[in-house]
Amino acid sequence: MAADETSIKVSAAARDRLAVLAAEHGTTIRSLVEQLAQGTPTRAEYAERAELARAELASALGSAPSPEAEAKARALLERLSATQYGPQAAA
After folding, report:
1. SS3 label, residue 19
2. Which of 27, 75, 81, 82 is a Cys-bridge partner for 31, taking CB atoms 3.0 to 4.6 Å apart?
3. What is the full per-residue pLDDT of the chain (91 aa) written as tens digits?
4. Taking Cα atoms as reference points, which of 88, 90, 78 lies closest to residue 21?
5. C-alpha torsion sign, points 36, 12, 82, 73
6. Of the candidates 65, 61, 39, which has an alpha carbon nearest to the alpha carbon of residue 51?
7. How many CB atoms neighbour CB 3 within 10 A?
8. Backbone phi, then psi, for 90, in 5-degree steps?
9. Are 29 and 19 in contact (CB under 8 A)?
């Protein structure tokens, strides 16, 4: 194992599921886990993005969005995110 590598212990069931998911995505478990880790923002990163978006909107519109508008946008983004990890369309 290279110096910059580590191992993660999971149940056999989780390992088997990861293997199926990786195969369905044409990748390896390692790549699947790395994509998840690199592609999923942390709460702090989400907060930073939200603050940048607020500043951009305030600059473009002359005022920041209302809390109600932010809540609607957040709900929409959560729905869109939920569909991202849904079943893959059959080829």
Report:
1. helix
2. 27
3. 788 899 999 999 999 999 999 999 999 999 999 999 999 999 999 899 989 988 998 999 898 888 998 899 889 988 888 876 555 444 4
4. 88
5. negative
6. 65
7. 5
8. -70, 140
9. yes
User: What integer pLDDT is reported at residue 84 of this predicted model?
Assistant: 67
Q: How is residue 79 written in tokens?
A: 């729905």
What is the distance between the terminal CA atoms of the chain, rounded to a whole angstrom?
36
Let me know: does 65 contact 73? Beta carbons within 8 Å: yes
In the structure encoding, which two tokens stand for residue 52, read together?
A: 């940048």
Q: Where are the alpha helices (DSSP H) in the chain?
A: 12-24, 29-39, 43-61, 67-84
CA angle 58, 84, 77 (to 5 degrees): 25
Contact predicate 67/73, CB 8 Å: no
CB atoms within 10 A of CB 23: 12
**Amino acid, res. 14:** A
